[in-house]
Amino acid sequence: MINTIINLKKIEMKNLRNILLASSLFAVTALSAQHNWQEKGKDEIKNETTTKTLSFYENGKKVKNSVMINTMVDAEVKTDPKDKGQVNEDRIFPPVKVTKTVKIDRDADDDIDEIIKFSYMTKEKTDFALVSNGDDVIIAVEDGNNLKILEEQNFKMKSQNESNTTYVYTNKKGEEIEFVVENLKKASMSK
User: Fold this and answer.
1) Is the pLDDT reported for residue 39 higher than 70?
2) CB contact set of 142 (below 8 Å; sequence gap of 6+)
């Protein structure tokens, strides 16, 4: 009988130890998650790099360029003001700032021939890219592994200063998107 009582005490101690261990683990995880949220602030940032192919016709010949695009999307996390103070506030999605660096390789070597860094604010899901045809900046949309140059280039220079150039694109609905080109570098292309 005494052995049975001692065995029950050992089982109770094991259970108590497991409960304490699980509680401690849960508390550390909860505090860590809270700490990460505070460090992150109220922004969500997504950063990715993809490689696409840009195809177009030049002098009747189809030309393919390799294009590497680094995209950083900075979205402010906001909740609906109507839900202020409630436990389960609805999230609203304001325009996001998209910053892209487009690196274009126009020839057979491995060197980058052109770099365009730009940013824009958008609510649309369309993923724009600014590229050049050698002379002019043109607008394209990402289409799978390819970049598709928009047929309607309602794209005009709005302003230019020492640090950037602003272009305005007007879509079919009449909505305007401003693209701020911060950097446009062309390497000397030798063939």
Assistant:
1) no
2) 50, 52, 69, 127, 128, 129, 148
* Predicted confidence (pLDDT) per residue in 128-161, tens digit: 888 877 677 888 888 888 888 877 777 788 888 8
Confirm if 114 and 132 have CB atoms less than 8 A apart: yes
Spell out the alpha helix ranges (H) of the chain. Answer: 2-40
Would you put residue 126 in left (φ > 0), alpha (ψ -120 to 50) or beta?
beta
Does this model's pTM top 0.70? My answer is: no
d(CA 128, CA 69): 11
- Domains in the chain: boundaries: 1-41, 42-186
User: Based on C-alpha coordinates, what's the Rg of the chain?
Assistant: 27
pLDDT value, residue 191 = 39
Comparing C-alpha atoms, which of 71, 130, 120 is closest to residue 95? 120
**Tens digits of residue pLDDT in 88-97:** 778 777 888 8
CA trace torsion 138, 143, 145, 150 (10° rounding): -20
Q: pLDDT digit string (tens) for 14-23?
A: 666 777 677 7
- Separation of alpha carbons 177 and 179, rounded Å: 7
